[in-house]
Design brief:
The chain is α+β, with helices and mostly antiparallel strands and 89 residues long. The protein is built from four helices and two strands, in the order ααβαβα. 34% of the residues lie in helices and 10% in strands. Strands 1-2 form a two-stranded antiparallel ribbon.
């Protein structure tokens, strides 16, 4: 279980790595979105991902619940300092 990490670099690249590459074993079958990603298109899923959760004191500020599973868009927003309503914090 990954509990902490230092996130540096491009937010889109970090999201791509931690959702589609590092945790690839959570997806058993290749779907349309994976095929499109392989062709270089940027696809952001709204599907809640059980293996990507948020924890800590900043959850309140970002309008999230502690230990909440989040989707790819919310992860991208967090890396860009935006809350659940896409507002910069």
């Amino acid at each position: 279980m990954l509990t902490t990490m230092k996130l540096l670099g491009d937010p889109q690249g970090l999201v791509e790595y931690h959702i589609h590459q590092e945790n690839y074993y959570f997806k058993q079958a290749e779907g349309l979105a994976d095929v499109l990603r392989d062709k270089g298109l940027k696809i952001i899923s709204e599907e809640i991902l059980d293996h990507v959760q948020v924890n800590g004191k900043l959850c309140n500020i970002m309008e999230l619940k502690d230990d909440q599973a989040i989707n790819e868009q919310v992860f991208f927003n967090l890396l860009n300092g935006k809350d659940a309503h896409h507002k910069k914090q």
